[in-house]
Amino acid sequence: MKVLRLATRESPLALWQSEHVAALLRAAHPQLRVELVPMTTRGDRIIDRPLSDIGGKGLFLKELEVAMQEDRADAAVHSLKDVPMELDGPFAIAAVLERADPFDAFVSNRWHGLDALPQGARVGSSSLRRQAQLRARRPDLRIEDLRGNVGSRLRKLDAGDYDAILLACAGLQRLGLGERVRQRLLAPDWVPAVAQGAIAVECRDDDGATQALFGALEHASTRICVEAERAMNRRLHGSCQVPIAGYATLDGDVLNLQGLVGDATSGELVRAEAAGIADDPQGLGLRVAEKLLAAGADVLLARLSSHR
User: Fold this and answer.
1) Which residue is catalytic, options 82, 101, 163, 263?
2) What global pTM score does this model have?
3) Which of 22, 71, 107, 275 is the most interior residue, by most CB within 10 Å?
4) Alpha helices (H) in the chain, listed in sequence order
5) pLDDT at 68
6) Distance CA 120, CA 307 (A)
7) Crossing angle for the helix pair 150-158 and 12-28, nearest 10 degrees?
């Protein structure tokens, strides 16, 4: 019986995602034995500083990629929003699974929604994208950094450290915590992270046999949407160090993409939107990126770059 080894982070959400991928693989290939290879990444170990200060979301991938290079794992499971726009080394995205709820969640034990918060309320989030949109909508709020896995963030909220926190709906729902969502922050008013809600499988680009196994997990329309979002982000040189948001939807053969660039300090936001054909998601992503740059995102990004 062939054994396939899946590298995964050790957080409860990462393990859920990897078990989900493993179950789908076993259903598609009954002759396959799937084993998880859990590991802790640098991004998991450093939780006392914002990701933007310590190198970005790529910190969640490196150890998993080393495991594949050293033949300790055959593939790795990621939240696609954590995967850099350009993969380092000899790697490829073998499959993108069907996207779950892509939106952000407002979570509070007392307040039913973002606009119900009193003046000066404390809101926890380390995402610069979320901070920028928070400042634009509620400049009176006190926005404070919040790192850690989903459970530790909820414990800090429950301990009274914050009046509310912002998380991804998909993560809460996957962990059976959907009841903690008090409000879904919906596009176009509130734009989620690029590829939020999508799970990706990464493997070595020269390992055609492993890539072929994941073909059964590929969700074509999700791949089209996230490719448009990621192409936009790539053109803008986006990372977690830059507040960029993007959300694509597919209606038949028509692909629509909303993009946003923000400033987490001032709350200034630049928005753009365009529609295109499903056959050219990257072209649409580039077009929205150019519209954002022409609308003033170039100045905003240059300012953010100089501050870093």
Assistant:
1) 82
2) 0.92
3) 107
4) 12-28, 42-45, 51-54, 62-69, 128-137, 150-158, 169-174, 208-213, 220-235, 281-292, 298-307
5) 95
6) 26
7) 140
